[in-house]
Amino acid sequence: MNAPLAIPCPHCSALNRVPAERLDQQPHCGRCHQPLFTGHPLALTTANFDAVAARGDLPVLVDFWATWCGPCIGFAPVFAAAAREFEPQLRLAKVDTDAQPALAQRFGIRSIPTLVLLRGGREIARQAGALNAGQLRQFVAQALH
Ligand code: ZN
What we know:
This protein is α/β, with parallel strands linked by helices. It contains four helices and seven strands; from the N terminus they run E-E-E-H-E-H-E-H-E-E-H. It has one domain (38-144): Glutaredoxin, CATH 3.40.30.
C-alpha cells in the first residue's frame, strides 16, 4: 500500500489524506463532505491559490487566460475536457489574469493563454499558446514523466 496523498479540498481548502488506491473512487472532503474532484477546472484567486494549488501531492496544471482573449476561449473546451480526463492524477485550474493580476504577475505571465504546471507550488513546466488535445496530453506526459 502506498502512502496517502495530501489533497487540498477545492471547496474549503482542508488538506485531506487520501490513500492512492482510493483516488479513483470519487473521494469526498473529510471536512465539508464535497467531492475533492469535480471534473471541472477550478477557478483560482489570490484568496485560494496557496491553499489549493501551492500544496498537496498532486501536480496542478494552471491555465492563465482572459475573457477577451480569442485563443483562450478557443482553448477552454480542450482544457475542460482535459479536467475530466486527467483528474484525479492531476488538478486542473484556471486563473483569469484580468481578475487576478497579482497571480499573473507572480508567475510572470507575458502572453495568454499560458499553461503552467506546478508541483508543490513550484513551476515544473510552462507552455505559451493554445494546444489541441493531443498536444496537451503530450505536454503533460513529458512534464511528468
Ligand atoms: Zn472541503
